[in-house]
Amino acid sequence: MAFLTIAKSGTLALNERSKQLETTGRPIHRLGFGESPFLPPPYVQSALQNAAIRKDYTPVAGLPELRERIADFHQEIDGYPVSMEQVLVAPGTKLLLSNIMHAFQDAEVYLPAPSWVSYAPQAAMEGHRLIRVPTFWETQWRVDPELLDATITCHGRSGADKLIVLNYPNNPHGLTYSRDELLALADVLRKHEVWAIADEIYALLHHRGLHASLASIYPERTLVTTGMSKWCGAGGWRLGALLLPQDTPADLYDAMVGLGSETYSCASVPIQVAALSAYELSAELHDFLNRQRRVLAVIGHMIHAEVTRLGIRAHRPEGGFYMLIDFSPFSELLARREIHGDADLCERLLEEAGVALLPGSCFGLTATDLTARLAYVDFDGPAALNDAKEDDAVILRHAGKMLQGIADLGQWLNRLSEDKDSR
Ligand SMILES: Cc1ncc(COP(=O)(O)O)c(C=O)c1O
Question: How far is the centre of ligand 1, averaged over its atoms, from the C-alpha of 200 (Å)?
């Protein structure tokens, strides 16, 4: 017998491992796995409760009224025309991303390194040619348009469909693109007729509310993936949406609906009804989003300040709830303790300091780069939201557990230095 070889997603594996260690009584600082700390607003929870009676299958593309509401929502928030015909609803964006990969045949997939953990396995499962586009600490991990142009010119085959996945605000590094930066990237994408998957799942959690959508700049070939997992604190509810271009080729649309019909049938109907309420533009919704942004900005900036105070390199996050931290200033010290790569580093940090981080190599970075993703979500989200309009100091009280984790990380690094000095 022969089966597909595919490992469990790195993020889920880490979460399970940390939980297992916790059951042995070891306190673990959970800075690796990232899940929204917030809850869907009470009126959205009530909408879900009231929808429990719904048991019908909906059209594969989703409830028409929900597709219309999502179209209106993004038209208003992102400032470009979207109609309901462009919207497909599904049980999570992960499935939509994987179905997009499936809908293209024998494509070239350009993936920035680092990128979210699941894109590369999804491309590999479809047998696409994976081409990494390196990004660098010095240029804030942003894809450089000239380098992208050179990469496509060098590796692209004429006639092959080309896809790139751009995710911003980004998981794992928390940085994003300005409108001008997207304009420069769009020029290159247009030149090479590349389809862009714009994974904008963290868009509404841009810390300053300044997200620019690639679809407003490169509307002809941008497929936006988004959903309720992050901004609505509803990851486990599984509600994702795809915003297709206005003139999507009928073959692509039919492939997406066909794939949905043969795999998930439709997103769960009570969740779709609750989503109708979540996607209603109101003062309450804006207040909910603004509170989340403020809490994430204040906590993210403090964690960043503490990490860099230890001598670890990190860029201050601009959106979402992650940052990429770089231990390369400690490479010599780490090598003396037989720590030569990011997997060794994260393993030893978990075992010796009880700090869970996710190795940068899970995101396509080189293991010897000694990077790791830090998620700053281990706090009581609803309580923090209540304090979102208070002074920073009040918000920061909620970050105590994570700050203790950073302090333990600092002590571990100090012990490395002391060991060196005592030799
Ligand atoms: C960048 C990115 N894209 C997509 C997803 C998947 O989201 P969903 O819960 O909608 O499947 C995640 C979830 O962690 C993510 O971080």
Answer: 9
**Cα 368 to Cα 8: distance, rounded to the nearest angstrom:** 22
pLDDT at 16: 75
Share of the chain above pLDDT 70, in %: 96
Probe residue for ligand 1, chosen from 100, 211, 229 as the CB with the greatest number of ligand atoms within 8 Å? 229
Chain centroid to CA 122: 15
CA of 116, closest atom in ligand 1: 1
Residue 294 CA from chain centroid, whole number = 19
Q: For residue range 189-233, what is the model confidence (pLDDT) as tens digits?
A: 999 999 999 999 999 999 999 999 999 999 999 999 999 999 999
Cis peptide before 169 (omega within 30 of 0): yes
The pair of three-digit structure tokens given for residue 139, joined into one six-digit string: 């240029």
Over the stretch 383-400, which tens digit does the pLDDT of each residue have? 999 999 999 999 999 999
Which residue's C-alpha comes closest to atom 6 of ligand 1?
94
**What's the predicted TM-score (pTM) here?**
0.95
Buried b (16+ CB within 10 A) or exposed e, 5-37: eeeeebbeebbebbeebeeeeeebbbbbbbbbb
377 CA to centre of ligand 1 in angstroms: 15
